[in-house]
């Protein structure tokens, strides 16, 4: 008998205890062979499939697993390999890692954030000579593996052609159609082979359909899926969207595929409204994403049940698949291994496995009747209630401070030019000041020290001594390299958000709650479970100590409100804006503590600002205004003499450059080295008058950049930016780099700056 089925869109690939990272890094450091790596990866993959099977998932995704990134997987599978990585003697796996990480002779491909998440994908590149070819049918091998080893008839997952091409670069807009035409036959071939192998459903991910598409782009979508359908293929195509409402629902559901996956969580109710208004084709399947795949809270099952009831009035149960709103890649694996969380909080959480349990429970209710899950619904509601009234969540002062601010505009006393004059007087920096973004190499010695302290093996005094010693060492190193503005190095921080979360009220921490950020790097986002307040100074100790050792300015280092919010799992019971205001007010206090301790430059990092940009144009303005507001709320109270810096990561800034201006930060540094200077073009057409550093080298690659290379990079930037406003710095923090890469790189950077300064001195500045 036909019935409603459960599915997932994708499952975390990193393992319960980050076994994935361990295997990759062991391979990269050549302590295991390629064969070992393949075995370890297969073990992980099969384990995750079996787990989903045991949890009762009907349609289990295969091919969502990756050795680095699923966009890179798709690009390499279709032969989108940049010319600089063509080497006769490399295996496909070696080439794959080279594209992601760079090698001695070639800079890694750019990476950027996957829609509005903190997951980074590798940007596929088209070169002059790139002709897509099918290198391997990845989903097919994963399908066969699952079938042969576990008897699972999986659902192969593949990034769809339109999104793949939209996310790629290196081609002209007018060539989009013809390139798509070269990709589509390859997809047809893949689908045909999958059909022959006995695949029932294939999931083609097209998250681009949640953004605003032009009419022309919409035509490409229609055309592509017409072609994929017309070929003689057997598997059914499930066209999967997520992170937003489908931008054109009517156009979507008229595509000739067999099913549609819609996100009913991040759509502001619009997918359901459209479903109700336009109906749903009677011969098609709806994969309804009803459980939030991006946050960690347990679902209100009553609410989910209601939603499914309303959906079932339009789509019959046998044509319904219930699943999370998006891939579970964005949440940790399981709450079960968390032993240190307050039971009130733990009871309210759901990570990947618990979300799957919610899904299979809801499906059971549909198939066997609501009474079969009544008890579970009741228990879940009790757990959520208990959490809601959990006393540590409530800080009346923090709430009051937010309401006292009301809608007041946070503005600094003086305008930028007035402040600039004061800063020049005070800091007397040379032209093209050199600096770094904040963190310095976190060696295993440093990580060990933190862990010893954490586990109680070291006293606070021993630990503080150790940190001070590192700070002192690196102040010396920075001085001898000749940097102009120094940093304390962030050795005491494991992660730029976790560190602040641990000092602030309202944050909770998991033990194993890792999620992949880029490559083998994972982050462990804190959980904002209540009101945020700052009981005491958070950063003054280390920064003041660093400043006491040098006459050069040391920048205070803070993480900004948008980034703290964005890189945490936030509470959802109050508005995001109110949560970020609470964080901003806590930072405002921290900034005055730093000033009171004589710190004159304070950097408030907002690397996450750009990634939070909503997919839909109609929502962008409000998001940006709120982000600017909270940044200014954190920084507006400073003295005129204090120089506020900010730093942002990866992205196309053209779109938000006006907002960057409105932050009113005195100096901004932006990651750009890996996008090969494209960002610079954004500054050709805008006037930006404040201090700005466009990273002159890529810290994500182990390569030491040469002086010449960086000199070129600086000179290129000076074509569009004035030497009086330009700062020279690496493109991001150095914590992931080794000392022997960092020191020579910074030396070369300072040397490159000197050479440019000399050139400028020879030719008078405009
Ligand atoms: N100050 C931080 C660091 O240097 C900034 C990191 C980031 O941009 N992600 O590590
Ligand atoms: Zn950065």
Q: What is the topology?
A:
Layout: E1 5-6, H1 19-28, H2 34-54, E2 61-62, H3 70-77, H4 92-101, E3 111-113, E4 120-122, H5 138-150, E5 155-159, H6 161-167, H7 176-196, E6 201-205, H8 215-230, E7 236-240, H9 249-253, E8 259-263, H10 270-278, E9 285-291, H11 301-312, E10 320-324, H12 343-346, H13 352-368, H14 374-388, H15 396-405, H16 416-427, H17 444-454, H18 460-481, H19 498-503, E11 505-508, E12 515-518, E13 521-523, E14 527-533, H20 540-548, E15 555-559, H21 561-566, H22 576-596, E16 601-605, H23 617-635, E17 643-648, H24 657-662, E18 667-670, H25 678-682, E19 691-694, H26 707-718, E20 726-727, H27 739-762
Parallel strand pairs: 1-10, 2-5, 5-6, 6-7, 7-8, 8-9, 9-10, 15-16, 16-17, 17-18, 18-19, 19-20
Antiparallel strand pairs: 3-4, 11-14, 12-13
Helix pairs in contact: 1-2, 6-7, 7-8, 15-22, 17-18, 22-23, 26-27
This protein binds glutamine and zinc ion (ZN).
Glutamine is lined by residues 437-439, 490, 496, 557, 605, 607, 647, 649, 732-733, 735.
* Rough outline: globular
Predict the CATH topology of the largest domain. TIM Barrel
CATH class of the largest domain: Alpha Beta
Question: Which structural class matches the secondary elements?
Answer: alpha/beta
Ligands bound, unique: glutamine, zinc ion
Proportion of beta-strand residues: 5-15%
Write a concise synopsis of the structure shown:
Helices cover 43% and strands 11% of the residues. It is α/β, with parallel strands linked by helices and 766 residues long. Strand 7, helix 9 (249-253) and strand 8 form a beta-alpha-beta unit.
